[in-house]
Amino acid sequence: MKAATACLPGLLFFVVLFGVAAPACAAGDSVRSLGKTIHSQPLIEQVRFNRTLLPLSQAVTAGPGGGDLEIEFTAPDSVAPDRAHFRYRLIGLETEWTDAGKEREAVYTGLPPAAYLFELQEADGNDAWGSKVASLRINIIPQLWETPRFRSLTGILLLTLSFALYMLRVRHLLKRSRKLEDQVNQSRGELQLAKKVAEDAQRALKAQAMKDSLTELWNRRVIFEMLEKEVSRAQRDQLPIAVVMIDLDHFKNVNDTYGHLTGDVVLQEASRRIAELMRPYDFAGRYGGEEFLIVLPGCSAMNGVQRAEDFRRAIAETPVATAVGTLTVTCSLGVASHDGIMQAEDLIHLADEAMYRAKRLGRNCVRAGMLPEEQNALDTISRR
Hints:
The chain is α+β, with helices and mostly antiparallel strands. It folds into three domains: about 1-40, no CATH class; about 45-145, Immunoglobulin-like; about 210-380, Reverse transcriptase/Diguanylate cyclase domain (Alpha-Beta Plaits), CATH 3.30.70. Helices cover about 40% and strands about 30% of the residues. It has eight helices and 20 strands.
């Protein structure tokens, strides 16, 4: 407020909008400046927490739990309430003042549980802040589970429970360890047997993945991989190698006439007779339905035809005993020899062509897929 002017004692003074005034002093009267500003005391009227009105006193308590705080205030003693404005702050949440202008309410949302101090100041029309501060202590109590005591007790309980579970686990493991140790000491032989069974099962699984389940010969994938390795070795070491392709004659008629079970017996018996003639380093596999592929490392073209003839006689000369009676089974064979250049696929293709040529020439015979100058001599041997 503006400073008031005072005359000699005995004059009247009047309260005006921003201070105290007096009539003009007579000439020669002593005049002194009062120089004093008058500010009213701001007043906190209402406090609501989560829209619930709280009783006012020197301190208010809200909760439990955080929430929204609303504080309404005014300046009842102000000489110019329409021109006064306010500022406030909530110590514990903020340190800077918030200028509320002419607003008469402070709102805080989502306040966490804590102890706060709300302070309020008023300014006059000249924006001079007064020295009078209205304050209110506000204590928002926490939920039970938010209190340090509850958290401490919970932590102790969790530690106790964890330790108890740990001890139970250790006790269980020690008991189990002793039990296993006793079993090992008492059943060492059984464990060795179980190990052997497991190893046998592993070998059986590996064999199932590599062997044809019906004939127990190598399956198509494995016999082809073996042929590729032998061809690479033959090229590297300049060694001969022969391949024999065998196809059972009229096998479809056996299945159609006597059934697939009888056909399976024929395949198994033919495979057994082929396996009996194999050298330790030969390989035989089931290449297709009734087709067999035989790899003969170190075998020349001439010897390959002779070996193929041995396979033909082993299959054809002795009838196969089945549940429907004995059946005479013949086969057609094609022989191919490695020329030092061709790949495994080319060698199979050459033997396959020779096998189909044997079928066209009447079946139950051996034909060689060879160079023209070698063909006549090899065909002569095959007809003996």
